[in-house]
Amino acid sequence: xxxxxxxxxxxxxxxxxxxxxxxxxxxxxxxxxxxxxxxxxxxxxxxxxxxxxxxxxxxxxxxxxxxxxxxxxxxxxxxxxxxxxxxxxxxxxxxxxxxxxxxxxxxxxxxxxxxxxxxxxxxxxxxxxxxxxxxxxxxxxxxxxxxxxxxxxxxxxx
Length: 158
Ligand code: FES
Fold this sequence. Notes:
Bound molecules: FE2/S2 (inorganic) cluster
Order of helices and strands: HEHEEEEEEEEEEH
Radius of gyration: 17 Å
């Protein structure tokens, strides 16, 4: 398999090589860390026995997801962006929202998905070490906007 067309382009191959981000025991203890993986800032969460990595800046307006709280909505664990409270599933990066049927205002609001908005990256555990491999999914993800180009530098926002 050649997910990034890497046979033709060694730089692409490098871009999608996994990167060590920390010790498993440390990340379990802190429950979240930030890391730079091939020039892309990501946050890694440890929640209920699983690791999840995603772009650190919220797809909505670039908010700092590493400072958000994790809550469950409709049975799905989400990071709640501290800026405008958007909810993003840890597992898939979907944006969740509540919707009410305008024809039935008394109905209970339903949780709905906007689709994948935040790019999710792969976390691998190997012998007590945690590695992140950047997503190479060939679709345009809203969080890409803040993860690349002139928006990618997060340091000034901390
Ligand atoms: Fe995250 Fe607006 S920046 S909800």
